[in-house]
Design brief:
Length: about 850
């Protein structure tokens, strides 16, 4: 998971946004650190399956969000209109599985049905915000209730239908509760119900300001139940109750009247709902587990018990108005679907959707992806209509970009991974189809004209427009930083991770087990290493991300014998609050188990320990490099590539040989954010055509690699290739080089860099996407050379902040001398000084021996850098 140890995330993201202003994050109306959490785990997502739901007042129908539209479907009298999840046909009265589309103009989510049955209120994502809209079911007309430009979500009608409660970022860009009066499709007297409170707790992944989410009315309409992290260090927080109206004359006085009646961590997914008689609360929690299931507790608090026990998520529960059933969203089968469970009963059924009746006539797009031998192929696909609205197959996992260029499109790019034949319902007219199959095939953009009621065909040959890595040898691609499951909308498996890799033409997925608070979502794969679900061209190899934010996160690739537990240190208010063990100690354990150890998502900003002595530095990277613990560094990761490369260059200048790697930090079960798998990857030159994890790891450790999010690079210097060493008895006035480029997008810069300085630039004005460049350079002293390519802004279809690629170094030794750079040595010595100052003042050690051990490690590293001055 993301975040290195320099506590400057917001500043770093802001600086990155300024430098690369074309691509800006989705929904900038939210001022909270780390969108990895609230964006995916809380805000509604575009999925081909259902994502949220509401019961009709008579308990006979559901309205739910699916594929960005609202849909209405009847429910059998005794259960769901379909088969029980994972079993045979459902008992009870089937309603035929007909889903009727209610909205189609934007991306609509989180419906709530008014008690009189007339209205549906929902959150609509349009115009770069999420506004509340209202749908008149009788007429089918929809109109906005709010147009404040904020993020407005989770609307709920009061029991009498005369008021609503919702969550909005209108006040200070943070999640707070608001209420309003509702009458005849209009709102009045909108007011903020909850106050703003800044916590003194040392929250790391969350804002210092408290949030309030998941509101639900008590059955008498007097109070609101909600979830807040007030007084809590980690996660979403506890369950609170407050009067539904603020006291007059006070600054949101309801906040002072609120009280917490239950606490357990639910990671943004609790969404409590009261039983119709007001006695019980159903909600979603992972208590003692790795997946969110349904739990029930007394409405006023008390001990909870589960009503589900699966190794999958059951979220967004809603109690039927007649009190007999709970409907929810499940990802048991990977994608999302609606489950309905009788209370009492305990046997969930799946709501079958066998027919979709659209508001407007639709066409069918038949997509057929093959290779030249007519074998089924896989690719990343994006399908949009003339207005830019996205479409996908009914069973596809829809994924979304985390940022986008507002000058280029109205909303973020969406995509799905297609394999072989796919059928997609699309509107009549022109349909745009984008196809990408990794970095060794051109990006393909096609147009199809679809006629209502007809089928349109689009055939794709993946062997057309392909090329290979321009450098000689056999190259194997890998993503060193993927999390198969991390609390997202979907439930991923190794077999599905293979499909994702095949769509991206990625050879190896390093799936890293990691905690999310107390959970280890993929702990079932602990110790497995090479997964049996792997295919010859797409391997899944299980490892670990050691998750210590104080020292920096490290990847432990292909670690044998299981994960190192607890998997982190430096977590305040836990038994792992001490800073021991250091990452250096963890590296020793991991190396003994055959793993490669590397630092991940290193720097959003360039650290300045000398010019900014007040800067709090705890990132252990230079310490572990000095002590010989680091096998690779994610130059491309969920950080700023140039800032990371700058630190890397300074370490190379001191003679440390650190290979370049690429890791996406992809949450592979997310519907949004940071992806896809293989967006940041590393190519390693191996000996044979067969893909073998051990051979690939040996090649990475030897530095025979280049890291990229698009451009493919080739580089030779003299008779040396990437990762090799050139040795000369004396300085050389002319050493020949060859630089090669092949890229899915044009780059603005293509440079040959030696010892941190650009010695040749090759990109022509307007950019270049391919070419071979030769010449010669002088080599006067020992050091290193790399080739790098980049753009100044984002460039679709690369879904990263900007395009970047770099080779690992070719090393140069002149007359046996070691590289020398006193300024860089002083820089890292000052870095260790800042670490020592901060760590010496740290209060929460288990014992004095731990502190002494850590300070000794720091002193050892400092001595190394002093010796290099």
């Amino acid at each position: 998971m993301r975040l290195s140890a320099r506590f400057l995330l917001l500043a770093g993201l802001a600086a990155s946004a300024i430098s690369h202003a074309a691509r800006l994050p989705v929904l900038q109306q939210i001022d909270l650190p780390h969108p990895y959490y609230f964006r995916e785990m809380y805000l509604p997502q575009l999925t081909s399956g259902p994502s949220s739901l509401a019961w009709s007042p008579d308990s006979g129908e559901l309205i739910y969000s699916m594929a960005g539209s609202l849909w209405r479907q009847k429910i059998g009298a005794n259960g769901a209109s379909g088969a029980r999840a994972g079993a045979g046909p459902a008992t009870g009265d089937a309603a035929g599985g007909l889903a009727q589309q209610l909205t189609a103009s934007s991306y609509d989510y989180q419906p709530d049905w008014s008690p009189d049955g007339r209205w549906v209120i929902y959150s609509s994502y349009r115009n770069d915000s999420m506004e509340l809209w209202i749908l008149d079911l009788a007429s089918g007309s929809a109109k906005p209730l709010l147009a404040n430009g904020a993020v407005n979500v989770e609307p709920r009608f009061s029991p009498d239908g005369k008021r609503i409660v919702f969550v909005s970022t209108l006040y200070n860009k943070r999640f707070h509760l608001f209420t309003a009066d509702f009458s005849e499709g209009r709102l009045a007297n909108v007011e903020r119900l909850t106050g703003e409170h800044k916590s003194e707790l040392p929250r790391y992944y969350y804002s210092p300001y408290d949030h309030e989410i998941n509101p639900v009315w008590t059955r008498d309409g007097r109070d609101i139940l909600y979830v807040s992290n007030r007084n809590h260090l980690y996660g979403t927080g506890g369950f609170w109750r407050t009067p539904s109206r603020a006291a007059a004359g006070a600054d949101i006085a309801a906040a002072a009247q609120a009280h917490e009646f239950h606490y357990e961590e639910t990671n943004w997914k609790a969404r409590p709902d009261l039983s119709p008689d007001g006695s019980r609360l159903v909600y979603s929690s992972y208590l003692g587990r790795s997946w969110h299931n349904l739990w029930v507790m007394p409405a006023g608090g008390g001990d909870a018990f589960p009503i589900a026990y699966g190794d999958w998520d059951e979220t967004y529960p809603r109690w039927s108005p007649d009190g007999t059933r709970v409907a929810f969203i499940s990802n048991k089968n990977g994608n999302t679907e609606i489950g309905i469970e009788r209370i009492p009963g305990g046997v969930p059924e799946t709501l079958a959707i066998t027919e979709r009746r659209y508001l407007s006539p639709m066409a069918r797009l038949h997509l057929d992806i093959r290779d030249s031998q007519s074998r089924a192929g896989s690719a990343r696909v994006s399908i949009t209509d003339a207005a830019g609205r996205f479409y996908a197959p009914a069973n596809a996992w829809i994924n979304a970009d985390d940022s986008f260029d507002r000058r280029e499109r109205h909303t973020e790019a969406h995509y799905f991974h297609a394999s072989g034949e796919e059928w997609i319902d699309v509107p009549a007219g022109i349909v745009n189809v984008d196809i990408l199959h990794g970095f060794e095939r051109r990006f393909e953009r096609r147009q199809v004209t679809a006629s209502a009621g007809q089928s349109a065909n689009l055939a794709v040959n993946l062997d057309e427009g392909t090329w290979s890595v321009p450098d000689a040898g056999h190259w194997v691609s890998a993503d060193v930083h993927v999390h198969m499951n991390y609390g997202g909308e979907y439930r991923n498996t190794p077999a599905h991770l293979v499909l994702q890799a095949q769509g991206e033409n990625l050879n190896i997925v390093n799936s890293l087990l990691v905690n999310k608070e107390q959970r280890f979502p993929d702990i079932a794969y602990d110790g497995r290493q090479l997964d049996p679900a792997s295919k010859p061209n797409a391997l899944v190899v299980h490892g670990q991300e050691y998750h210590t934010s104080y020292w920096g996160h490290v990847g432990l690739l292909d670690i044998a014998g299981g994960v190192i537990l607890p998997g982190y240190v430096g977590y305040p208010n836990t038994a792992a609050s001490s800073l021991y063990p250091m990452n250096a100690d963890v590296a020793d354990i991991a190396h003994a188990r055959g793993a490669l150890v590397g630092y991940v998502h290193a720097f959003d900003e360039y650290p300045e320990p000398i010019s900014k002595p007040q800067e709090k530095l705890t990132m252990e990277l230079p310490v572990d490099v000095a002590l010989g613990k680091v096998d690779y560094l994610e130059i491309l990761g969920f950080a700023d590539h140039r800032s990371t490369a700058r630190v890397w260059y300074q370490l190379l200048n001191l003679g440390f040989r650190i290979p370049a790697a690429g890791g996406t930090d992809a949450m592979a079960n997310y519907a949004s954010l940071r992806g896809p798998v293989g967006m940041n990857r590393v190519y390693v030159r191996t000996k044979g055509a067969e893909i073998k994890p051990e051979e690939w790891m040996a090649g990475l450790k030897a530095g025979r690699s280049f890291a990229t999010n698009g451009p493919l690079l080739g580089f030779t210097l003299g008779d040396a290739g990437i990762g090799d060493e050139l040795k000369f008895e004396a300085a050389q006035p002319r050493v020949k080089f060859r630089v090669q480029l092949r890229s899915i997008v044009a780059v603005d810069h293509l440079d040959l860099v030696c010892n941190g300085r650009v010695v040749r630039s090759f990109a022509a004005r307007g950019g270049v996407d391919h070419g071979e460049f030769t010449g010669s350079i002088a080599l006067d002293d020992s050091g290193w050379c790399v080739v790098r390519a980049s753009t100044d802004t984002g460039r679709y279809p690369v879904l990263d902040t900007y395009v970047y690629a770099t080779t690992s170094p070719i090393y140069v030794t002149i007359a046996g001398r070691k590289p020398r750079s006193p300024d860089d040595a002083r820089y890292f010595a000052a870095w260790v000084d800042r670490m020592t100052e901060t760590t010496s003042a740290y209060p929460d050690w288990n014992n004095a021996a731990e502190k002494e051990s850590v300070l000794q490690r720091l002193a050892q590293a400092k001595a190394v850098f002093v010796g290099l001055q």
